[in-house]
Fold:
Amino acid sequence: MQTNQAEILKNAVHGAPSLRRCRCVPCSLSVYVAATPAPVACPYCQRSLAVEEARRPLAPEAPVPSAAEVKARLLKLYNQPPKAAILLIGTVAVFLLAAAVFLQLRNAENYWYQPMVSIYSLLAGLFVVSRFIIAAFYVPPPHAGFEPTITVLVPCMNEEAVVRQTIERIFAAGYPAAKLEVVCVNDGSTDKTLEEMLAAQTRHPNLVIVDFEKNRGLCHAWGVATRIARGEFIVCVDSDTFVFPGSLRKLVQAFVDPAVGGVSGHCDVENASTNLLTQMQDVRYFFSYKIMKAAESVFGAVSCLPGCFSAYRRVCVLHVLDGWLNSTVWGTHGNYADDRSLTNRILKDFKIVYDDEALATTIAPESWRQYTRQQLRWVRSYLREIWRTGKFMWRKHPIPALSWYAMMWMPIFEPVVMLQALVLGPIIAGTVTASYTIGVLAITLVWSLHFWALTGRRWWWGGLVFTTSYIVFYSWQIYWAFLTLRGKKWGTRG
Structure:
């Protein structure tokens, strides 16, 4: 049941922390402040806000990992695996790659038999290999002692179980208190998310809480928080993301360069050891950051700043905010293409980079149902934004531009290629396309091995599970996503 706002303010205790609720009735919006200045006008309609004042009892201190626990967590995330095992698997991977290349060259004269499969296999293989080569030249932004004012935005919907810990970890990350502001947005939650936020506010006066009485979507959660933020830079943290000490300070170092408009931090999966699904996602996350984003960052052209842990130059966000909030798909307003859409609007005129030393962990879906919903939302976001990015990406450096246009078309054709190589080929000709099958296996082994070599996490084979599930099941989502582009749900739990 949704929290009763009047009851929250009724709990007045002498000597307890002061709380002000600034409410706009027409917009069904409230802003709760403690030590920070109260807004005088609604961020949406600019009407004067009605102000109520009360006191709340000091909430019990929430558990925050100690420095020793954090260090232990890092050591668990990154350790050294047996070198002999890596050598063995690496040898197999190299052998398979060589076999795939050999088959491609040997069958060059037979491209007419399955031209789409052959050409796709060649281009996809070259694309992935090029990512590894370019990523080898990646260098994280240097420490420059830069400490600007920042506002951390935390959008929430039905996150009562984790939001308190997320907030506490942000304040415990070691950023100077005088330069740190946290804005949490409760987007129409039906559980006790708001109560957990208010409990945290009694211990952290720099916490500002925005409450939407009805769900308005992730874009609007970010939008209203950006409008009331006082920091020079905006850091977006998902409600189930936990920031490591020192990571907020590291994340903003790249902004010393005035040409940089956004920075992606690095996220690992917090609950990776839970089951096969989370282990699979852990391997995938690592590849998408350490290889894909690292390669894009070499040219300042990271194509998506993930909402779980990224930073923006606030003036850049304000410049594109109205267009971002009011964008439409097929004449209908859509609010799910959040992080990718905002990234593209800023990437058009600024550099976007990646910092693999700014660390955080995020909770990945633990059920296949949640995972499927998340993937469908991500694919819709991709489809919605490819045309926008395509309009300007050609003006970037030739290498990331060519890579992006290649990546633009691969997900669209992949299901058809898979069907032809693994289903129609055996039915018609009685044989599986060897170059495609071996190539997919080889590339998957390479990036799974890379994950194991850098982390030591024993579930490196999760990469094989991801590739299999994606090719057989999830690659087809792109067609359903196209047919349901008007869908608007943004949360895995929402």
Q: What stands out?
A: Residues 5-55 form one domain. The radius of gyration is 24 Å. Residues 398-429 form the longest helix (32 residues). The longest strand covers residues 351-362.
